[in-house]
């Protein structure tokens, strides 16, 4: 059974940086395109960033383009999210997710329904 564990959440000041990591175990990491989603209180879960299985293609929500960077280390079964120039609206619970569909080889999905494995989430708080 695949497990996804997010690491690295916490409190950061607006304008600061924070890095998240997600470690995947229980199944070959290369079986998954990976994504990061977030959910703020009272809001729906939204796509943040995605990366294909080999890490050749990335995709970002417009709200984080130029500030966030997704990457993966297939030797460590880890996907990372580097968040810079954080804003108060970036706060929320961040979830790591895996998409085992074959389409994830070429293009990361932005739809949560296409991701079949999820971590429990890690809280990111941005103080102003």
What is the string of helix and strand elements? EEEEEEEEEEE
Separation of the first and last Cα atoms: 40 Å
Total E-strand runs? 11
Structural class: mainly beta
General form: globular
Major β-sheet profile: 7 strands, mixed
Strand content: over 45%
Low-confidence stretches: none
Instruction: Name the average pLDDT.
Output: 96
Oligomer: single chain
Report helical residue fraction.
Answer: under 10%
Q: Give the count of helical stretches.
A: 0
What is the rounded Rg? 13 Å
Describe this entry's structure for a reader.
- With 128 residues, the chain is an all-beta fold.
- Helices cover 0% and strands 48% of the residues.
- Strands 2, 4, 5, 6, 9, 10 and 11 form a seven-stranded mixed sheet that branches. Strands 1-3-8-7 form a four-stranded antiparallel sheet, with no helix packed on it.
Label this structure with key terms.
128 residues; mainly beta
How would the blueprint of this fold be written?
Layout (H helix, E strand, L loop, with lengths): L2 E5 L2 E4 L4 E8 L7 E7 L6 E6 L6 E3 L7 E6 L4 E6 L8 E8 L17 E2 L3 E6 L1
Short description:
0% of the residues lie in helices and 48% in strands. The chain is mainly β and 128 residues long.
């Amino acid at each position: 059974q695949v497990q996804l564990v997010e690491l690295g959440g916490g409190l950061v000041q607006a304008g600061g940086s924070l890095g998240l990591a997600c470690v995947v175990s229980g199944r070959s990491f290369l079986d998954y395109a990976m994504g990061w989603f977030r959910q703020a209180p009272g809001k729906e879960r939204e796509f943040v960033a995605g990366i294909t299985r080999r890490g050749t293609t990335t995709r970002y929500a417009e709200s984080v383009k130029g500030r966030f960077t997704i990457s993966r280390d297939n030797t460590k079964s880890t996907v990372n999210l580097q968040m810079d120039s954080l804003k108060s609206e970036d706060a929320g619970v961040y979830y790591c997710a895996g998409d085992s569909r074959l389409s994830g080889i070429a293009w990361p999905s932005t739809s949560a329904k296409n991701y079949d494995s999820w971590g429990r989430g890690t809280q990111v708080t941005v103080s102003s």
